Amino acid sequence: MKERLLLIKNPVSGMALGxxxxxxxxxxxxxxxxxxxxxxxxxxxxxxxxKRYGSAFDVLAVSGxxxxxxxxxxxxxxxxxxxxxxxxxxxxxxxxLLADVVKIPPNMEIAAEIICDGVLHGLxxxxxxxxxxxxxxxxxxFTDTTYATPQTLKNIFGYTAYVIGAVKxxxxxxxxxxxxxxxEGEEVIGGDYLLGxxxxxxxVGAIIKLDPSIxxxxxxxxxxVFIRRPENIAELSNIVAQIFSGKLDNDLxxxxxxxxxxxxxNEEIPWTVDGEYIKDFGSVDITMYHxxxxxxxLSNVMRERYGSAIYAPMPINN
Length: 318
Prior knowledge:
alpha+beta; 27% helix; Tumour Suppressor Smad4; 11-stranded antiparallel beta sheet; 35% strand; disordered C terminus; 2 domains; 4-stranded parallel beta sheet
């Protein structure tokens, strides 16, 4: 008997390489699953659908970008642990960070094949104020570019638009005074911070890059970066230079790994989850849930089967 799979498609996501009809994706998946299709019609539709029907399926296959996948993630994490479906990702957005993290190629047909023939891998999920995230949660400079840049510009120029948006945010230099407790109190830092990011990936806001060798999406630990407000132009220049060099641990930039971060602050500030603005929060606790979900990724057999074609762009169908 075949497992039941719910295929969720966001019809307006980004610029998938070689837009593949949903019927083609469903046909590939039907080789192994009984496939049910849901086309989203509005923001939060994917979340509502999964909350209502998710536990009735063995697999959720999501065709969309990070925003759509995050909606599904929010819903899945509300289900009892023993009722959470396995997650399959078919990247189809401007931003496909989670797909990149778990090594899902930008070829939608191969991504569907992975859900049929790939292997399952645990996926750490973070939680803050009732919001779940699998990539990054952040505040401040550099972090708001994915939601502050108009959708049309994102679709046309992709990450170039994100970089432009991030550089523009440099002129604002808004900082927030806070106290940050690392882990169960192993260390406490404080001051005025331009940026704070708690991440499970090696990229924050498409500008800040972490060393991929220290980032593991299933190691039970966050990577965190907090950047202090510079006192002068020289310090600002130093921050920018350190960001672009990838050297993220000095007097102005604090980098650490932990499974828990507590932030105490006397005002509410805007946060993004997986690059999308969610709401303003005051004091928060950010907690890691190790291997909270299972996600399909490439098997060694599939790597041998497809070779270099895995990451080759598909031709654009006009």
